[in-house]
Amino acid sequence: MESNSKNEIVKSETDLLLEQYAPLLKNLIRYSSAVNAKDISFYKSIEPSIKDKAEFINRQLVDIMNELLMSSTTISNDLNSEDWRFENDSELENNQIMSNILDSLLEKVEINIDNHYKQRKYEKVYQNKNNKLQINSNQIEDGYTYLDPNENTNLTSTNIVPKGNANMIKPQSKFLKSVNNFETSPFKPIIEFKPNAIKSLQDSLKLIEPTDEIPLHYENPYSYEIMNSEYPEWILKSVPENERYESIPWVGSPEAIWIDTPEKLSDLLIELNKCKVIAIDLEHHDYRTYHGLTSLMQITTDTKIDYLIDPLSPELRENLTSLNEIFTNPNIIKVLHGAFMDVIWLQRDLGLYLVSLFDTFHAAKQLSLGKYSLAFLLEEYVKFRTSKKWQLADWRIRPLSNEMRDYAKADTHFLIEIFYKMHEDLLKIPNALQKALYSSRKVANRRFEYPTYRPKNLSMSSNNDVVTTTGGVPLNEEITQHITLNYDKDLPWTNLIYSNGIPLERRPLLEVLFKWRDNEARKNDESARYIMSDFILVSLVNSFEIGHEEAVDINSVMNVINKNSKFGGSYHVRKCIKELTETIKDALVELKGVDLNKLQALNNHLITDIENEETRPSLSLSGISIEDVYSSVKDVSKLQQQFTLFNNFYNKSINLNKPIHIETINDKNENGIFAIEYGKKGKVSVIENKSIKKRIDEIVEFFGEDMSKNVEFEIDAEEIGEEENDEEENIETGINNKEVAPKNEEIITLRKKRSDRINPNTHKRKADAITEAEDLSVDFNKSILEKEPEDRRRSKKPMKKPSFDPYSREVLDEMNIPQLKKKKMVDRSRNIVFKQSKR
């Protein structure tokens, strides 16, 4: 009752304020409109006193607007009052600022309205359940412990996920070493000493000479130790039950110890040296920095103490390399989950490396658990359910809230217990533990590299141990100073081109804007998507055409940004709108000289897996002889050997006791089973190797014949298609199938196709005209190698000859020929029986 009365009081006060100020605001708008309708400039020019008075009022209005602007920017993270200021006698710029401010504020209103309705949606649920449930702890009746108990009751949490705003001072600006994102050399490990070394630091930090695939680089300085140090002996055996680790129950567990000074770090090193196992996790931020920023480190020890280490502390950051004393000690197991990026962040930002890593992700893979996330392992092994909402929190914020500290602590609090339980499960499967440990070694051996020095074909298996944490533009002169035109898969903007279907003529503009965005991100130490989202970049590319630079101005560019700002960040591009506009305009002028024919030619020679890795290249007929086309089938021994490899592998899947040997089909494997065919009504037939060999021999013999002759080749009934086409053409050529083929046998005659049609769907022409190699190559490639399904062939209609119709009444009358009886087409509804070839 009291809350209702308070709401009524607040409401009445609001109504009074509106009633008081609404008429004043209404009159102000009316007077402003009336004054604006007059030609003020004219009166100012003829009367100095009016001019002075108008300019004085104008300055007052500008000051008032700037105060309002300062007030409005405090409620939005996307606006900064220092970057937006109204100025006297700048009508165009002031209108643009007003438009931007209103867009951002209205977007903020829309978001808040959505949140309001979501809150009201669960309000009744909360009130109803609050009468039945009292949540006094994190323990819920379903047997699970919850980090956020509201997630189990479908109630909205009162905790708001904090995010940094545009006015937040970036932590990297306080670091003792300033950030420089314009790399002039490969990434050099930032360690100055190497504890637990087998290979000396001097030998580990030598520059490796470049190869065709891998540029100049430094190796992972602990690569030798990671791959060769032995794990402690106890990990290969079962741990007695009385020595296995049990976590402290979550409810009532002590808070994590905060480490942010060198003195506290020294105390931590003493504790870590006492451990056999430690658990590690990281929180990372990559939105307001170019390469990314390790923002928090969590460590839990087997002495059951949780620690939170602050790598953003300027005085602590430079001392964190001393943790290598523990992290590279092979006798201390380091447990992480999904460490494939953690090892990169550790070495890139802090100079830390991991020896004797145990990755629970790879352990879960060996155990075939089906799900491999940390959240699943927590539920499966310790009955704990974490919260997902803090994954999107800004971990640069200081101080961290209690809720954020709890979430961070939960990532490692139970990880050691999970390790011991998974360790026992792995020992029950032969070699599973060894495989998990080897996979963990390979993860720890990964190394970070700058985009400029990234290896070619980075996705290939030989180079997948190298990671670049940004899709930055390589700072090579041939790339930064020129339009490349050749869009291969190693260029960072290629994926953006093909994923958005950018037309050929617009691709150079996308390349220019991509490079501009990358340069801005490097200069300001921001992520590329903070500078300008992919959606806005692609929208700008699609909005302007080469040769129409006159259509580009601040208003047109801003209209595109405003229209698409809700799909990504736009604060920075609004801030530097003039520079961006000039960049687009200059690019459109410069790109007038781009030879699109050359671009088309280069594009035609791209490897098709850039756009679709599963796309097969089509056969080009220009300059290809018949010997080139059939070179792969002329070498019979090679063909048989390749076929036998697959044949033996296939037989192994049927008979597991049969060993695999590389044999020719002529050997003892000749009578083996190649495949089992299941027909209708449960009929089963066996395809033997000798029948497959016979088919191959017939194909090879077929291509060894004189191509000027008619060649007959027997095939299965199900391979026969378009019978109606054959019959129609037999009328034209005078050939009757019944006269050529013996009873109950089908003979397929290869005929010359029209030279201007290479599509496999075109109908067959005359049987005695196979003289050109191109037609034959296409017929073979399309009709045999890429045979179409039966249902598609049946759906095709025969092509009719447009120039001459022998059945037309006009033609018959002119030639004095009686009416011909047109032969009926084959009725597909009837059953047609073909003789199958003997297998």
CATH class of the largest domain: Alpha Beta
Give the overall shape, derived from the CA principal axes.
globular
Major sheet: arrangement of strands: 4-7-6-5-8-9
Number of strand segments? 16
Description:
With about 850 residues, this protein is of the alpha/beta class. It folds into five domains: about 1-35; about 40-130, no CATH class; about 185-465, 2-Layer Sandwich (Nucleotidyltransferase, domain 5); about 470-610, HRDC domain (DNA polymerase, domain 1, Orthogonal Bundle), CATH 1.10.150.80; about 635-815, no CATH class. Helix content is about 45%, strand content about 5%. The chain has 33 helices and 16 strands. Strands 4-7-6-5-8-9 form a six-stranded mixed beta sheet, sandwiched between helices. Strands 1-10 form a two-stranded parallel ribbon. A two-stranded antiparallel sheet has the order 2-3. The chain is globular and about 100 Å long. Keywords: Coiled coil, Exosome, Nucleus, rRNA processing. This is Exosome nuclease subunit. One of its GO terms (cellular component) is nuclear exosome (RNase complex). GO terms for molecular function: 3'-5'-RNA exonuclease activity; nucleotide binding; single-stranded RNA binding. InterPro entries: 3'-5'_exonuclease_dom (IPR002562), Exosome-assoc_fac_Rrp6_N (IPR012588), HRDC-like_sf (IPR010997), HRDC_dom (IPR002121), HRDC_dom_sf (IPR044876), RNaseH-like_sf (IPR012337), RNaseH_sf (IPR036397), Rrp6-like (IPR045092).
